[in-house]
Amino acid sequence: MLLAAAPVKLERNQFSELLFNFNNLNPAVEIYLTGKTEKSGLSFNNYIYYEIISYNKDTSYSIDYIFENSFNILWKNYSINVNYRNIRTFLKPQYSETISSDTCYKKTLEYGLLPGKKYYLLPHTDTYYLNEPDGSYVEKTNTIFYISDQPFNKSGPQIPITPAFQGWTY
């Protein structure tokens, strides 16, 4: 993907507003990602973002690793810098490894975002509540971006959120 000129850098709320103004019926768009990469020790892929998750025999899982560097989302001639706290990923695993014996079972999955690959982005607003000293609650919002390797349908993502974000709380 080549850009004719340097992309216009935007803040998250500006970018989200631009996407809704672009097409408020379906603000999902095709994007590309740039930024520093890191080579995974499992698949040896160079990722802009990735997470490694291990499942045990009882289906419990642990988040073994999350690459925490920021990266750029590119859409048309716009750019926004984000980190893993600003996104929620809906990806198929890039790599899977299973170790199994009579006494042990461990399945490790790697989910990641690759530079130069086309992804799909859908802006989203998370709502949460903060407790005030007087016992009341104040509603707060946070603009985030759903990123998927599959196009979004009218109801949202077609595949489940990746494990690192399944229990996300504020």
Helix-strand blueprint:
Elements: E1 8-10, H1 12-22, E2 29-34, E3 38-39, E4 46-47, E5 49-56, E6 61-66, E7 71-75, E8 78-82, E9 87-90, E10 95-100, E11 105-113, E12 119-131, E13 137-148, H2 163-166
Parallel strand pairs: 1-8, 9-13
Antiparallel strand pairs: 2-7, 2-12, 3-4, 5-6, 5-11, 7-8, 10-11, 12-13
Features of the shown structure:
4-stranded antiparallel beta sheet, mainly beta, 7-stranded mixed beta sheet, single chain, 9% helix, 2 helices, 170 residues
Question: Would you give an account of this structure?
Answer:
With 170 residues, this protein is mainly beta. The chain has one domain. 9% of the residues lie in helices and 48% in strands. The protein is built from two helices and 13 strands, in the order βαββββββββββββα. The strands form three sheets. It has a seven-stranded mixed sheet with strand order 1-8-7-2-12-13-9, covered by helices on one side. A four-stranded antiparallel sheet has the order 6-5-11-10, with no helix packed on it. The longest helix has 11 residues, at 12-22. The protein is globular. The protein starts with 7 loop residues before the first strand and ends with a helix. The mean pLDDT is 89.
